[in-house]
Write a structure and sequence with these properties.
It is a single chain. The chain has about 220 residues and is mainly α. It has a domain of about 110 residues. Helix content is about 60%, strand content about 0%. The chain contains 11 helices and no strands. α1 packs across α3, α2 runs antiparallel to α3 and α5 runs antiparallel to α6. The relative contact order is 0.08. It comes from Methyloceanibacter superfactus.
Length: about 220
């Protein structure tokens, strides 16, 4: 093996009753919608490159103005390590103000460019963009390190509805980290709020706390 990625399958070779549109939605869903990806470090890990590329490109050809199919095709290319094929699709979406495209491109860009894209998504009101930019500020990845402003941005993301940001803030309150002060009660409020909104990780944490009958920390 030379490490090259095989060409995607032809859609006609796939035995399925699904339309290209349905396949694209299922195989390459927007990882930054809803609760975000299962693994924030690898948001495209579950994208099926071999089937999603033909499905999403056909869906996009059928619906040229539909952003979700362009985003799906871009993510499929990224999953197949075809970054240069993804970039034109993402660049076009970004010019249209698509914040999910900003975050997708951020994940495959050098740190300074990634931080700028996260900042753009944050300024446009994307809650997960706020959370990611806040973490960039806290760690100094691609931007001058500023933990105080970073925590403020994560809190802003939590207030804007990012359940991941709620769990991060819960961690900080549980540990008294980053200047927020030790406050397990506030941590539990945030975990409960995230669970009430349907976040699976928050539900698991609440179940674990109820079973153990003691405080715990949220996932890092």
């Amino acid at each position: 093996m030379n490490g090259a990625v095989a060409a995607p399958l032809n859609l006609n070779e796939i035995v399925t009753d699904e339309t290209p549109e349905s396949l694209c939605d299922r195989l390459a869903p927007n990882p930054f919608a809803g609760f975000g990806p299962d693994e924030w470090g690898q948001p495209f890990r579950t994208v099926d490159y071999y089937r999603a590329v033909p499905a999403c490109t056909e869906a996009l050809a059928n619906h040229p103005g539909e952003p979700r199919f362009a985003l799906g095709a871009a993510m499929a290319y990224i999953a197949g390590k075809k970054i240069e094929s993804a970039k034109p699709l993402l660049d076009k979406l970004i010019t249209q103000g698509n914040t999910s495209a900003m975050l997708v491109l951020a994940y495959v860009s050098p740190e300074p460019e990634a931080a700028d894209l996260m900042h753009q998504a944050s300024d446009a009101g994307n809650a997960n963009g706020m959370m990611l930019y806040g973490m960039a500020l806290m760690t100094g990845k691609g931007v001058a390190k500023n933990p105080l402003d970073g925590v403020r941005m994560v809190r802003r993301a939590a207030d804007a509805g990012s359940t991941r940001a709620m769990l991060l803030m819960a961690n900080f309150y549980n540990e008294g980290a980053y200047g927020v002060g030790l406050n397990p009660a506030e941590a539990k409020v945030l975990i409960a709020k995230a669970a009430q909104l349907g976040d699976p990780a928050a539900k698991n944490i609440l179940a674990s706390l109820a079973q153990e009958g003691e405080s715990g920390t949220t996932p890092q």
